Q: What sequence folds into this?
């Protein structure tokens, strides 16, 4: 006989993978846990969903409480449900991800579960609590795949950027698999007509100032919706 | 004070969206429910995950029990967790999808939850139990998006097929948004060199027999892995 109570014994959480880009480095936002399990260990900003709370709402709330980040567009990536992934019992976790500009966020959470939040280079985002290494890897793989079929950068770069900065972003995501040829990259990205030449140059740099570009928002969004093939 | 028991009150299910293609029509596999809730109503083949069972394993088991389909490659699509989506309590569901050849499966489930399983044209897959209309729509949208960046057909068509059959498959997925021009479609698909001309013609057809093709498996898999842009 089916008895609902036999099944209604699981908890579920949300975990957020927030990518940012700064000084040529791809980073993710981690918290140092302030409560058990895994106290003092670095982890993805995640926590339990209230029994009467929608998943997407929970992802937003948890991210805000643990890191101070608000109004971030979170996209569901995948659900992780291995039987023994959580020490307290059966806990399914739904992973969300987002790409944001690092500048402009004040990392001040309100929850004691987070001692502090910090942007960490993806190379150093290892030995995380729970199965968070595995969750991070899955989300990073998704980002690497996405680079090939959707434009990228609008969410991660400052409004005005140089072609070198854009190439550094692609390299940070595609490494170590791919070294990008500068000439090919420029030819390809300019032929897509996704960039607007601002007729401005960088200021306050030691080297010869480079031209500044911004994205053509309409074209960018068209490519996001329809997909494309960016082979570099 | 955090108390795990306050959160460990949810159940979770898996729901499978199995697409097939037959006689020019795109279909999905539904079950007529044999048990409450929603007895006698059509639904996606889904059921509860055992507390000690992995998600992927549960999706496979449930599909087999309800429909008889075995050894199907299931891919996780998205998790649906609206607070009131299930009448018995808080139930999160993880949706899996697959593309299969309709022929060759004997629709014989073993679970009383399924009175019967049946391939249903996607136009008629409406008024499903729970929030299954919404889950189906989300998976169908994913399939429509995927057509633009990955090759399609290997999983759905017979081993030998005509260009007309391949075009019908694309039309069945992209309709009603898109009418496909025959000449453009053929030019585009042949230029990708993804098809092998078998130097055979159809047999036993009333009209002029068309040429038969099969997929070049290696090229097909390369495109699946790397993505491409199929604008038609």
A:
């Amino acid at each position: 006989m089916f008895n609902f109570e036999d099944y209604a014994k699981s908890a579920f959480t949300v975990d957020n993978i927030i990518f940012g880009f700064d000084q040529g480095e791809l980073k993710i936002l981690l918290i140092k846990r302030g409560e058990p399990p895994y106290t003092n260990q670095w982890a993805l900003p995640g926590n339990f969903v209230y029994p009467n709370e929608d998943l997407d709402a929970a992802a937003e709330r948890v991210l805000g409480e643990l890191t101070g980040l608000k109004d971030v567009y979170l996209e569901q990536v995948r659900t992780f449900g291995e039987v023994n992934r959580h020490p307290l019992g059966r806990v399914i976790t739904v992973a969300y991800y987002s790409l944001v500009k690092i500048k402009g966020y004040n990392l001040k959470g309100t929850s004691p579960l987070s001692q502090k939040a910090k942007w960490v280079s993806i190379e150093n985002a290892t030995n995380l609590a729970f199965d968070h290494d595995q969750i991070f890897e899955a989300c990073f793989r998704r980002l690497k795949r996405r680079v090939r079929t959707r434009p990228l950068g609008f969410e991660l770069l400052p409004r005005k950027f140089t072609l070198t900065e854009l190439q550094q972003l692609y390299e940070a995501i595609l490494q170590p698999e791919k070294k990008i040829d500068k000439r090919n990259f420029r030819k390809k990205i300019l032929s897509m007509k996704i960039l607007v030449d601002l007729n401005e140059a960088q200021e306050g740099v030691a080297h010869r100032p480079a031209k500044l570009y911004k994205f053509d928002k309409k074209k960018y969004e068209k490519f996001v919706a329809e997909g494309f093939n960016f082979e570099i």
